[in-house]
Batch of 3 targets.
Target 1
Amino acid sequence: MAIRKVYEMDEITAVIRYKDSASTLPEVLDSLKRQTRPVDRIVAVDTGSRDDSTRILTEAGAKIIKWEQPYHHSRVTNFGISHCDTPYVLCLSSHTAMNEPDIVANLLESMSDPRVAASSICWDDDSFYTNKIDHHEILQKGLKLGSIYTNSLGLLRKTLWEQHAFDESINGVEDYEWAIHQLQAGYKIHRLQAKISYQRKGHNRIMRGTARVFCIAHRYQLKVTWLGYKATAQALIKHLPGKLKGQDEAVERFDYHARRLMGSLFWRFIDLNIN
């Protein structure tokens, strides 16, 4: 309750991109409704939905705006945020549900530090980065597969987005690029450990995630922190016998390293969009 009083004037708009998401939206919207600090508005960007998604969102009180052009992750996200008039914007995937009631409150609490540009959930419990990243940390540690900031569940300051919107020359890596830009400008990015349910879409997420890291590292001349080619090749050789025998763990590890290798080699040619 104290958190709610402190941030009562800090309004938040949730931006949800969707297309044929009727199977996941009820859980997503219910988790949004159950937050101790609920959002003040919902803007939903319809990118060509033909199921009950629009009805579900309308009944939840969302303002529906239509994206009439071919889907492009960065452009759609910018389009949605441009329809927000609140100090904070919660970028939320239509298949990401929050399993804890204080996630939005905690994201907002972290923004009480004016040096924090954005705050988002961590995809894993990897402690490689601290929970408040600055530019020095990125320079020292390099970029690693995993989230620094994610538009699947991330809160940002709209004023900073107005100064530097998501780069529309890239598709699907706009959250990484935006976060690195803010770090270079002297801001920090907060990472929150929280439980979520995320129904992944698409294939080869590890490969594309790796490609994203190499893409942004190249743009900002940062080192990439990973096993490297030699250690990856050794890991592939180690797990190959088990993969050939169909052993589940060996298959999983072999495929993981193979996809990371593919992403690191062919990042210039891989579709970086991860839905």
Target 2
Amino acid sequence: MTAEAPSATWRRRETLSSQVVRTIAERIKLGDYPRGSKLPTEKALIDELGVSRTVVREAIANLRASGLVSIHHGIGVFVRQDAGVAPFRLGDENLMLVENLVKGLELRIGIESEAAALAADRRTQADIQAMTAACKAMDAAVRRASRDTQADFDFHRAVATASHNEHFFRIFNYLGETLMPRMRLSTHAVDDASLSVHLARVNEEHRAILKAIEARDVEGARAAMRKHLGDSRDRMLERLRQEK
């Protein structure tokens, strides 16, 4: 009997492994293997699916890499509680559409208003100093009519940090880095004088948020952030209407 080429054996095993991955993933999706439950043993899968131990182990490794299962050594393989939950992301290809920029700001309103309220309750003196420094940096940006978004970003990040909830900080970093530069792109045709007036107004709103946070005014901080981002949304829409 002629020996089979190693590459042919590998291709077949890879195909079988993919089939096992699809079978188990489908069972997880349908709830046959509920979240948090233990998968059948390696031997049970081998016997049921008619494949080798190597194929099953490769399939489990792929399922683990896909975030569907976790391996508890000495105990077994378990379906993850978050199995099949797609990670949140904004579609970059559509982010310049006006309606998507508006939706992004609406999302920021909901998240950052609550972060500001928590910041008013939990802020430290170091947090106040970080927000104050960002406002001063924006004062300099006003004088230069700078189109750089860094001072604006730093202020909002300092508020998120002052919430002392790492989830607010992480989601702000994602939303801020994704949305804020694109929103500022529409200012490229604005003259320097008009831009300075715009930035000064924005920084006044930042200082109102800072004042409420420093005073530990929870409701005031929430309202000031909501007004600031709501006004930013309205200004963006008005500017885009004028550019048409």
Target 3
Amino acid sequence: MKEPSTLIGIVLALVAVGVGMVLKGASITALLNPAAYLIIFVGTAAALFVSFPMSELKKFPKLIKIIFGGGQKVPSKTEIIDSFTKWATLVRKEGLLGLENELTNIEDPFLKQGMELIIDTTDSEFSEDVLLEKVSAIQERHRKGALIFSQAGTYAPTLGVLGAVVGLIAALGNLADVEKLGHSIAAAFIATLLGIFSGYVLWHPMSNKLKLLSKREIEIRHIMVEGLLSLQEGLNSRQLEHKLNVYLTPDELVQKYAHTGTNEEVSSGQEKASYSS
């Protein structure tokens, strides 16, 4: 699933900066300052190399792909609930061993491993501990990925100030030439502009995007955990469905039951949606 909002946001930010410079009477060509780009982007990269081990930084290209691609492909909440409802009916008829034939149809690795776990053990506490540990490990991995970008967003504006200082030092060498002095000062502040722009328009927002994608995936994982444990407990399909429906928003409840004609659920979802609006 592609996520165009990131690219749209970056393009809008670039357009805003460019148009803003023109309206203020500044030339777009002032942005063509190799020294400023070197200080900001190479400097940010250097700070990241100091801050993080190489094992974490190697994930940077993959994280960029996630940001622009919309994250890992996982089933929707309604798809998961429908699947678990079907599996609950199967378990009531054939027991947990009846789920073995379903394993080949499950593409999600976490869900597949969880299904194998509940088939192999009858200890629900052990299953819960293992599944929640897996979720915690996923959450921690996501946190480390987002931290790289949030730290980059912290370093870049500071390096912008550093770039401005370096530029002003160079400008002091042109005090005898007023015109050249003005260009030197303008060039000095390009580094500050790039530092602020990259920090607050690129790195911090990208970190937030990763956090939101992580939150969405972790919620899906928790639904899977609840569903797997419910199958192990032997809940019937209706009980399991009610239990997992708590993860759905009122609008999702309305959409889920609108095509089934279950008036009780539809009216309940509509009522909740009206309270939330």
